[in-house]
Structures are given as C-alpha cells and as structure tokens.
Design goal:
Strand content: over 45%
Strand order of the largest sheet: 3-2-5-6
Number of strands: 6
Order of helices and strands: EEEEEE
CATH topology: Immunoglobulin-like
Oligomer: single chain
CATH class: Mainly Beta
C-alpha cells in the first residue's frame, strides 16, 4: 500500500514529512511528492497512520487516520 500526502508551505517550503505507523517512525521523505510504501501481512488488524510535516522554519503539522487493513501475503 502506498501512503501519499499533499503538503505545502507557501512561505518557507516543506522540509520533510515523517510517516508513523502505530506511533513508530517508519520513514522520512525529503522529496516531493511525499509518499511511503508500506507492506504489512495482516488480516483485519487496525493501524494508526500519522504524518508529520515540517517546514524550513521548524514549524510542524500532524494528521492521522486509523485504518483496518485486509492484506494477504504472497
């Protein structure tokens, strides 16, 4: 599954975006467009996905979503 986010900062620009799964930092992306490829073999498990974006002034914003994942391993 690919998690893609759209972030912007008109004043200083976006420095980086951090991707968290269940409050654990999984990946930091410094390049537009920001995305994270997540692969987890699970069936019916619930995960909290959180992204935290930082601008070049050190400000940050966070958003999250909780999903129930139905993914089969190959």
């Amino acid at each position: 599954m690919t998690v893609e986010v759209s972030v912007n900062d008109a004043q200083t620009g976006v420095e980086k975006v951090e991707f968290y799964v269940n409050n654990k930092l999984e990946y930091t992306d410094y390049v537009l467009p920001q995305s994270y490829s997540w692969s987890e073999c699970s069936f019916g498990k619930t995960y909290n996905f959180k992204v935290k974006a930082y601008d070049y002034s050190g400000n940050s914003a966070t958003d999250d979503v909780t999903l129930r994942v139905f993914s089969f391993c190959k």
